[in-house]
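Researcher: Going back to the complex we discussed earlier. I've cleaned up the inputs and rechecked each line, so this should be the final set. Can you rerun the prediction on the complete assembly and write out the structure?
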Amino acid sequence: EPEVTQTPSHQVTQMGQEVILRCVPISNHLYFYWYRQILGQKVEFLVSFYNNEISEKSEIFDDQFSVERPDGSNFTLKIRSTKLEDSAMYFCASSGSGGDYGYTFGSGTRLTVV
Amino acid sequence: GESVGLHLPTLSVQEGDNSIINCAYSNSASDYFIWYKQESGKGPQFIIDIRSNMDKRQGQRVTVLLNKTVKHLSLQIAATQPGDSAVYFCAENNSGTYKYIFGTGTRLKVLA
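Model: Rerun complete. Updated structure for the full complex:
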């Protein structure tokens, strides 16, 4: 069964450093997403991406966040200057069509900011 | 966003019994709903979906019920098994948007 692959599975970074979280969506999917889940809390939407541009973003997704699809297979989330409160699980997802269809989520990257 | 901290509602059921997990959704304009299962250290996994023009949908061992009047979803799991132990989230979508809004989650514990 096709999978969404995320790397690394765990990243520890110093506060103020930049991090890039990487995702390989399912190959024929067209819509890509990032969500995050702070420990013990809800899964929260960050951003959706379609046709090489952001289609929707949440208030969490401020100027320190950016997304990119640098080639035909990878989808990245960059956090420019990490803060302690950015510590969370970050999930990438992809879907073949827009929001009214189930996503496939990756297993997540646990980001720890120290 | 709303925070519920570290303490999820927990449902404990005996193996073989039926489980019912409930969810109140927030947006009356939402027209598509999904139940996700999340095992420890993994991403949410699709279980079953339902559109707002339906009030019931059945899958293998799972049934989702939708009550739009009170904005309520439930997930019924028949003959609960140890492998069903996980956190279950409902998620709502408005077809005019790309995002899902997740509920707070319920931890299901299956007792042997």
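Model: Worth noting: The mean pLDDT of chain A is 93.
Researcher: Good, that matches what I expected from the previous run.
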